[in-house]
Amino acid sequence: MTEKKKKAVILGAGGHGKVVCDTLERRSDIAIVGFLDNSPGRWGQMHYGYPVLGGSEKLSELYKDGVVCAVAAVGHNEERKKLAANIYEAGMEALTLIHPTAYIARDVNIGAGTVIMPQAVVQAGASIGEHVIINTGAVVEHDCIIGSFSHIASGAHFGGAVVVGEGTLVGTGATVRLFAKIGSGCVIGAGAVVVKDVPDTWTVVGNPARRIEK
Q1: What's the order of all strands across the beta sheet hosting 6-11?
Q2: Distance (Å, whole) CA 56 – CA 102
Q3: Could you tell me what percentage of the chain is helix, strand and coil, using 3-state DSSP and rounding each to the nearest 5?
Q4: Residue 165 annotated as binding?
Q5: Beta carbons of 97 and 72 less than 8 angstroms apart
Q6: How far apart are CA 136 and CA 119, in angstroms?
Q7: In which band, very low, low, confident or very high, does the pLDDT at 2 lie, cut at 50, 70 and 90?
Q8: Which of 78, 102, 106, 145 has the most CB atoms at less than 10 Å from its CB?
Q9: Is the pLDDT score of 58 beyond 70?
Q10: Confidence class for position 193, pLDDT limits 50, 70, 90
Q11: How far is 122 from 124, CA to CA, in rounded Å?
Q12: Is 131 marked as binding a ligand?
C-alpha cells in the first residue's frame, strides 16, 4: 500500500522560501500545496512553481482542509519566530528539513522546524535548537550548541564547542574560534573572525571581530 503524503505549506515567498521549497521537494512523504506570505502584493501569484495562497492568517483554514505541516522559510530571526508561533497556534507540525547533501553526525540533536541546507556539516555532539537555519556550506563542528531561532549563514565556520544563544545571526563566511560563546540577539558580520566571547545583543564585524553600535 502506498503511504499517503502529508500536505505542507511554506511560510515565506522570498528567496529563502525557494531554497526551502527545493529541499522540501526531495521529501517523498510530503506534498507541497503552496506558499503563504504576509505581503499582499504576492497573493495570487506563482512562486517557484506553487501558488501564493495568502497570508499566515490562512493557516487555520488550511489545517481544516488537511494541510497538517508547515515550515517557516524566512531568514529574519524575529519574523521566523512569529511565523513558528502561527504554525503551532494552527495545530500544525513544524517540519524539520535536512538537505540530502548535508552531513549530519549520528548523535546530533536537531529541534523542530530547523532547516539544514546543501553541503552543510554538523559534527558529533552538536545540538541545534528549534527553527534554526544552518545555511549552505556552513560548518558546525563537534559539541557546538546553537540556540533556537538563530541563523548560521552560508559558509560560516565554527570551531568545536562554540555556543550560540537564541535569535543570533552569524553572517556569511564568518569564522568562530574553538570554545567561543556568542550571546542571544547578536549579529556577527559577514566575514568576521570571532576570537573572543560576544555578549548578548552585540553586533561585531571585522578581523578580529570588534563591536559596533547598531
Answers
A1: 30-36, 6-11, 67-72, 93-94
A2: 29
A3: 15, 30, 50
A4: no
A5: no
A6: 6
A7: low
A8: 102
A9: yes
A10: very high
A11: 7
A12: no
Q: Are strands 210-212 and 203-205 parallel, antiparallel or unpaired?
A: antiparallel
pLDDT digits (tens, 9 = 90+) for 11-42: 999 999 999 999 999 999 999 999 999 999 99
Q: Domain 6-95: which CATH class?
A: alpha beta
pTM value > 0.85:
yes
Q: How far is CA 124 from the centre of its chain?
A: 20
For the CA atoms of 164, 113, 28, 124, what is the dihedral angle to 10 degrees?
Answer: 30
Q: Which residues are catalytic?
A: 142
User: Where do the domains of the chain lie?
Assistant: 6-95, 96-203
Choose the CATH number for 96-203 among 2.40.160.180, 3.30.300.30, 1.10.150.20, 2.160.10.10. 2.160.10.10
